[in-house]
Amino acid sequence: MGASNTVRILDGNTFVVSEDTGDIEATPSEPTGLFSIDTRFLSKWVLTVNGERLNALSYDDLQYYEARFFLVPGMATHYVDAKLSVIRERMVGGSFREQLTILNHDEKAVDLEIRMDAGSDFADLFQVKDEIVNKKGELYTEVEADRLRLGYRRGNFKRETVITSSVPARYDRNGFAWTIHLEPNEQWDSNIDVQTFAVGPGGRDLRMGLRAHGTERLALQNDLEEWIAKAPKVNSQHGRVSATYRRSLIDLAALRFSPLSLGGQTLPAAGLPWFMTMFGRDSILTCLQVLPFAPDLSKTTLRILGALQGTRFDDFRDEDPGRILHEMRYGETSAFEEQPHSPYYGSVDATPLFVVLLDEYEKWSGDVALVKELERECRAALKWIDDYADLVGNGYIWYERRNTDTGLENQCWKDSWDSISYSDGTLPPFPRATCEVQGYAYDAKMRAARLARQFWDDPGYADQLEREAAELKARFNRDWWVEEGEFYALGLDPDGRQMDVLSSNIGHLLWSGIVDDDRAGKIAAHLVGPRLFSGWGVRTLAEGEVRYNPIGYHNGTIWPFDNSFIAWGLRRYGFAEEAATIASGILDAATYFDGRLPEAFGGYQRELTKFPVEYPTACSPQAWSTGTPLLLIRTMLGLEPHEGHLSADPRLPVGMGRIEVLDIPGRWGRVDAFARGRLELHKLGD
């Protein structure tokens, strides 16, 4: 089922995906239903009146956590004569609640049979994604006088859905019903409450922060208002920027969730529907994108990732000492080790990026206490880079999964099976090393050197890290440069052979600072050249490469997050015009998605399409796509923390007009920034 005819509401790890009537009829392969903690708690939720399905007039996307559906019985041709209307208003807030309203517009009384068919397959999200239908445990249904209890148990793993109604209903094994009598112009209402319960290994209660009855909407509304009020205000002459910024802020609020061990503190989940959980790489990159706007997410993310850092060698989880996790899951397949995500450590970029985020966060916040608190974890991450990630012994970060059954083959951000190839289209052997990860390692060492010198009282370690970084930079520029094409190879194979394809990864190299200055101009020219830049954004793989496909997941699509870091990298090396070109294309594209950038969209040339073509199964909202406009605003204004102050060097795209960002938080207090060719920067109250 495509995104166009589904309605999605969410609150962190809990979300509902339904048809535009509000009905849910899930198949094993469709991510429709009520989900929480990686489990589907409702797979059937179908409303009928007198045995007849309802048709949608419209629906309102009220807030990220609530929606309202306006329905009538009968086919579309009968809408004009409808004597009955039905309103379904629903929300999630840890639990799921639906208010049902029936209105009689007829001149005579009516007797109605109102029924909700309800059921759950309790599918693990991985089972839905992989279209696995068999359940190894026991499904059960308990019909009680005042409630319907749907359940699943497998050993001490237990999930339950408990359904109650404010108006007494008749419950049976397949749902519940009311028989009602409505006088002319009379209205009938019932509140349906759906509570989800989970017990994990050892009998531990895994409920995710359920709120008391009747308080969800107020709590969520107040929380959203407080979230928006705390964030900087963005005003622009070009309406797309401020509208897209607000959409991003709201989506970022929706994607916040609190892991079980955090007691209410939140970090960004990766994306709906498949990735509503903690991801090392995604959470870190999102935090980097939104640091000037929502700095608290970084602190939470760093703490939880540090607490769950690898401590041992575990082939099943691809775990090493010092390695930062890739993904954490709470569903059945993880609980019974049918998947390794409890947590799983199979990424090679999250570990250096952890160090990068810690340094960047301190530069903005001045939070020295956190830098000292995470010194041990930071040193362990750097030790992982040197001692455990160099599988070939030549000073680079490599990857090869040890869990050959369920581990990830490609452990970089382009993690689909065919994303890493030679120029002839063939796939290289393992282990593999990709270019951007070497840049992250260089950046991590340079940043950690600053932390060691300024905060850990270890200048000798700082000198060592800077020396190692300089050696890595020289070695990298020797081994990865493709002379004929004048760009950096996507990767190396274990024999040192280059994967000599032109890819978007080279933009991340600019961001990391590993590119030699005399080569940066060539890289910038490629990034805005016709093979990589479509007019909407930079493609993941250049047009003309054997595996190029404008709707290939990592082989030609445009990823907004990718473009935001490319723009940041271009600014680092002084290519402000090129960065503005990319920012303009992505922000233009956002307007066609109502301000909500999807995970990816087609790499077609802009002249060929009047609008960007969405990738068929793109996550939306997705955290690092949500963070993209925020980083692009920072990039266009040239906002950088510098020696305890906020510096600015704006370069806006042609036609952008004036942009102002008010109340930017940081160690400097709060400052305002204005840009239109020139920029003023002053403390509030000055």
TrEMBL record:
Putative glycogen debranching enzyme N-terminal domain segment(s): 10-190
Signal peptide coordinates: none
Residues annotated as domain Mannosylglycerate hydrolase MGH1-like glycoside hydrolase: 340-592
Entry-linked Pfam families: GDE_N_bis, MGH1-like_GH
SUPFAM superfamilies: Six-hairpin glycosidases
Official protein name in the record: Glycogen debranching N-terminal domain-containing protein
